[in-house]
Specification:
Blueprint: H1 3-17, H2 22-34, H3 36-58, H4 61-67, H5 69-93, H6 99-105, H7 108-120, H8 124-136, H9 143-175, H10 179-201
């Protein structure tokens, strides 16, 4: 892969990673509610899920899911249910959580697990990895050396982007308190429900 092609790939993957979605919202919420460090553990969960998605895409599981609509629908509705549950929790929080208390009650594993579940609940991510990677892989060249360039680059960009979202969450925590925090939680909860509704109505196999 030429340096110019790599730069194009970096630009494309940055564009794919930046839009606000369930993963970004989770990192913002985790950092705002439980502190920046817990937000970083959410990034770790996104990173782990990204590795899984990438591995599944490269191994051809995307084609398998497309050919098995029942399994695909099961995964999709599990994701819908989890996002909806997260939305309800945020709507019921009433802005009562404080970082000093939540940091102790919310473990690192909970942060990682929640991020993994949110990310894995959207099968579309597998198709995103597959769609982007196939645009930059030369089928006439050995696959492994190309993946050794593309995979670390994509993962690094993903981590950087979501660390940035954690930084946004830290700013939210400083700006929003009391009634402001309550409204932030309501907006976040409503957004989670909107993501769940969007995932429920989407035909992801056409992505």
């Amino acid at each position: 892969m030429s340096f110019e092609s790599w730069l194009v790939f970096v630009a494309v993957w940055m564009t794919v990673s930046l839009p606000l979605g369930p993963n970004a919202l989770n990192c913002i919420s985790a950092s705002a509610t439980h502190g920046f460090q817990k937000g970083l553990w959410s990034v770790m969960g996104v990173f782990i899920a990204a590795i899984i998605h990438m591995t599944l895409a490269v191994s051809g599981i995307a084609a398998f899911l497309t050919a098995n609509p029942v399994l695909f629908e099961v995964l999709r509705w599990l994701g819908v249910g989890y996002l909806a549950w997260m939305g309800v929790l945020m709507l019921r929080s009433k802005g009562k959580f404080k970082v000093e208390k939540s940091v102790e009650e919310f473990s690192r594993w909970q942060s990682v697990r929640r991020a993994i579940l949110i990310s894995m609940g959207n099968p579309k991510s597998i198709f995103v990895w597959l769609a982007v990677f196939t645009q930059f892989i030369n089928v006439g060249a050995p696959l492994a050396p190309q993946l050794l360039i593309l995979a670390p680059s994509a993962l690094a960009i993903t981590v950087i982007v979501y660390i940035g979202y954690c930084g946004i969450g830290l700013g939210v925590n400083r700006l929003f308190s009391g009634k402001r925090k309550m409204w932030f939680d309501r907006i976040t909860g409503t957004t989670y429900l909107a993501f769940a509704l969007g995932l429920a109505n989407a035909d992801l196999r056409r992505a």
